[in-house]
Amino acid sequence: MEFRINDRYNKLYLIVIGLLMHITLRQLEVFEAVARHLSFTRAAAELHLTQPAVSMQIKQLEGSVGLPLFEPLGKKIALTEAGRDVYEYSRGITQQLGELEGMVNRLKGLSGGRLKISVASTANYFIPNLLGTFTQRYPKVTVSLDVTNRETLLKQLMENSVELVIMGQPPAELELDAVRFKTNPLVVVAPPNHSLAHEHRIPLERLQDEVFLVREPGSGTRMAMERFFTERHIRIQTGMEVGSNEAIKQSVQAGLGLGLLSRDTLELELRLNRLVILDIAEFPILRHWFVVQRKGKRLSPVAEAFKTFVVSEAEGLTDTAAR
Ligand code: PGA
Predict the structure, then answer these.
(1) d(C-alpha 27, C-alpha 61), whole Å
(2) Mutational test site, ligand 1, from 118, 119, 121, 122, max ligand atoms within 8 Å of CB
(3) What is the pLDDT along the chain (323 residues), one digit of tens a residue?
(4) How many C-alpha atoms does 232 have within 13 Å on its Cβ side?
(5) b vs e for 61-92, b when ≥16 Cβ sit within 10 Å of the residue's Cβ?
(6) Could you identify the atom of ligand 1 that is nearest to the CA of residue 169?
(7) 73 alpha carbon to ligand 1 midpoint, in Å?
(8) Binding-site residues, ligand 1, Cβ < 6 A
(9) Distance 124 CA to ligand 1 centre (A)
(10) What is the pTM of this model?
(11) Ligand 1 midpoint to CA 122 (Å)
(12) Among 262, 285, 288, which is best to mutate for testing ligand 1, by the most ligand atoms less than 8 A from CB?
């Protein structure tokens, strides 16, 4: 018998079979995350679980299905054929659960709904403060916050697995609504004893002699950096690839290279004189923060209230464009 994903009855049939096979929604949720990231580690981080807990859920699911769902592919993992089929269904099911949650939130209004947002890792330096004020204003609202990079945020929006996202400017070709609310200046940092630390208006060409530490592919900061240097025909040397803003700052302090980061991430290091911003011609690179949703998506009252709140509070956030 052939199942088609959009066929409601077949889907229901599969859920019933799943229940008979003791598949739990939690297993499907965990499986969906591992399959989307093709990584147990990243799925564990997203779901705030340990890696053994994730492996256990997958093992139980494989036990119920009776077939392996993942196979090793070099150092990575890939979905098996059965895994690909289960992924299609589990995506449908988790999306429907998200819609069900949205509907329940709409019914609850602001007196007990859940705010589910995802933010760019770089935005995580100011978002918790905003969330603090927001939850004081609406104490019955619970918040689920996912912190990840730009590429994953776009994927979450397209999969409709999140209501609102805080990120840098989204690509124009995607069906998204984006409201700009705050500047995001990108600067170059060095340890205080670096030879360029006391120079002024350093020409861009001088950067070609330096090694830059770069964020992982999929990072908005990295994308902006590459675009900026390419447009100006500056060929920088890239050193280590580093998967987070915090790790970049540590590596720059350790003298492993220069870093290009959002000014928003640097409050502490600048205050403690652990890093300095280099005075480079044409810098900072001026980006902006946006609150983004799928075009036409009906937001829950909680998400609607948060969006209005972010945009109105933005003026109160310290504008870090000035050095
Ligand atoms: P990032 O996002 O944390 O993925 O670099 C920041 C941005 O989009 O500017």
Answers:
(1) 6
(2) 122
(3) 444 445 555 555 555 565 556 788 889 989 999 999 999 999 998 888 999 999 999 999 999 888 999 999 888 999 999 999 999 988 888 888 877 877 777 777 777 788 989 999 999 999 999 999 999 988 889 899 999 999 999 999 988 889 999 999 999 899 999 999 999 999 999 999 999 999 999 999 999 999 999 999 989 999 999 999 999 999 999 999 998 999 999 999 999 999 999 999 999 999 999 999 999 999 999 999 999 999 988 888 899 999 999 998 876 665 544 33
(4) 18
(5) bbeebeeebbeeeeeebebeeebebbbebbbb
(6) 8
(7) 29
(8) 120-122, 149-150, 167-168, 184, 215, 219-221, 287
(9) 10
(10) 0.71
(11) 5
(12) 262
In one-letter notation, the amino acid at residue 188 is V
- For the record, the structure tokens of 124 come out as 């995580």
